[in-house]
Amino acid sequence: MSREDRFLKACRREEVDMTPVWLMRQAGRYMQEYRDLREKYSFLEMCKIPEVALEVTMQPVNRIGIDAAILFSDILIPVEAMGIDLEFTEGRGPVINNPVRDERTYKTLRPIEPADVGFVTDAIKLLRHELKGKVPLIGFSGAPFTLASYMVEGGHSRNFLTIKGMMYQAPGLYDSLMNLIADVVVTYLKAQIDAGAQVVQIFDSWVGCLGPDDYEAFAMPYTKKITDALKGSGVPVIHFANGASTYLDKVAAAGGDVIGVDWRVDLDRAWDAIGPDKAIQGNLDPVALMAGQDEIDKRVRSIVKKAGGRNGHIFNLGHGVLPPTPVENVKYLVDLVHEVSLRR
Amino acid sequence: MSREDRFLKACRREEVDMTPVWLMRQAGRYMQEYRDLREKYSFLEMCKIPEVALEVTMQPVNRIGIDAAILFSDILIPVEAMGIDLEFTEGRGPVINNPVRDERTYKTLRPIEPADVGFVTDAIKLLRHELKGKVPLIGFSGAPFTLASYMVEGGHSRNFLTIKGMMYQAPGLYDSLMNLIADVVVTYLKAQIDAGAQVVQIFDSWVGCLGPDDYEAFAMPYTKKITDALKGSGVPVIHFANGASTYLDKVAAAGGDVIGVDWRVDLDRAWDAIGPDKAIQGNLDPVALMAGQDEIDKRVRSIVKKAGGRNGHIFNLGHGVLPPTPVENVKYLVDLVHEVSLRR
Fold first, then answer.
1. Which parts of chain B register pLDDT below 50?
2. Cα-Cα end-to-end distance for chain B
3. What's the complex ipTM?
4. CATH number of the domain at A3-341, please?
């Protein structure tokens, strides 16, 4: 079975020869090749120059042997196209210079056209040509709540006071903003699919700050708008809601063919909560990759065992690869997942 | 029914007239009285001068009408008595100048004697005298994993790389450190109980960085050592493991008469996971206190409804009161919990 088939079939819960594996943030600072390139370009340049995004995307494909490539980009790219003044600062992460906290700033935002993100679709086209069907290409976007939280908070947040304040005190403005973002994400992901993305992932990185009732009222409907709009695209949707493992039934109800889960939950319990009609992606603690290979071995076997040979498990970390991770452990992990999951 | 009886009976799942309520970090920066005192004393001085700790502890009792007082202190106090060089810095939080990362530093640590924390037991004695049975007094400590993570990481951490590294690479050292801390916490909490604490809470603030299997192997046994040692003390133990709502069955198995839960889980589902033989404490999102009173009303009623009139619910936030919280909303919350839970 080709690696392209393996991953795409697993997304559709069809039988595969072994469990496919890719890793969130598989292109990143833990690789020397990445750090070398990063010395020449700013982070945003790496996202915006298609040839550079291509090179970074291919680094783990060539070096690690993973079963899917994921476009090198940032979840905030579509937000910038909406009129957000975005900077990436060393140490502080993304900073938004015009946070959206009132009707007036909201009104300066605009929907996007595929042409606004031409560098993304160009990179996808280059990548499909370069990959030649070796492994499938995943496109992605942030989910509405996560994008809104950056736009409203102005960057990373600890307690999400400002975005929650908007939910409570200005529900009309919140709803308008979330609907606008959902529409932007639909345009953005459809453009990626039209350019050749074979799977798309929606990252809801910060939604775990919401309790289950707030998730249902303030995040789920907008994510569902996106997954509904992508039905019939023929492309599987992976939906990862980080920190939301206490209400995976609601995350699943927001849509997606594959539900990504973080490492704070047992994979088998998670799958029970999600239901048997969806595939699952996860869920090794990224810090485990800093351990010795015997520890990695134990943990990988445990996760594969919890998947229990059911169709529809995609192995991944429960969050992105961390910068101090040894490359040889990532390589070891990928080979090990294949070895222990091989259907004989 | 007296407020003292209300809280203590709820801890034991006995019938009460209305749901008792107190709030984690109920003494703190959101109160003007606290900020005034804080201008005169450093944070550590406020913990260490019994008369000042008394005054701060009493502020919410006098102003808000809560059903329990909790000793004003910090979870790291027993760690300092072990030989840790602790500072509280503005903005960065606690900083440990001699982080424990090897056998050599571990060997410089010592068990504690009740006399090492005499300022804590003195404050408790003063408080019991001052409270005159008006409301019960809660003592507390950090849980072993949370204290160890501060000691090993050297302060707050994002990914807990160093403590997890110790688990994986130096399990013997990790086990020795955790056992030493568990013994220290037993001595510390027994000293508080001997001085007059009527309930004790164990805070496992950072344990949510662990997946369920790691929790069971690397945190649960040491917390259980403490709850086992406190059995027979006659004092109810509240056990709060923040961010661990995906494996509350294991948290409950680590012990405690009352299990505290954060706001990321439905209270009724949480109670199902914990089991009917334990009381439950929680779980309003602290940020909801920034909302208008109609929103607070809706959320409080929802939580009280989920408790379903069962004996053994103590109302609390799912985490500590945040500094920008309006005092009038805290007062409103407490009165509202009483009103909507009144057994008629």
1. none
2. 13
3. 0.95
4. 3.20.20.210
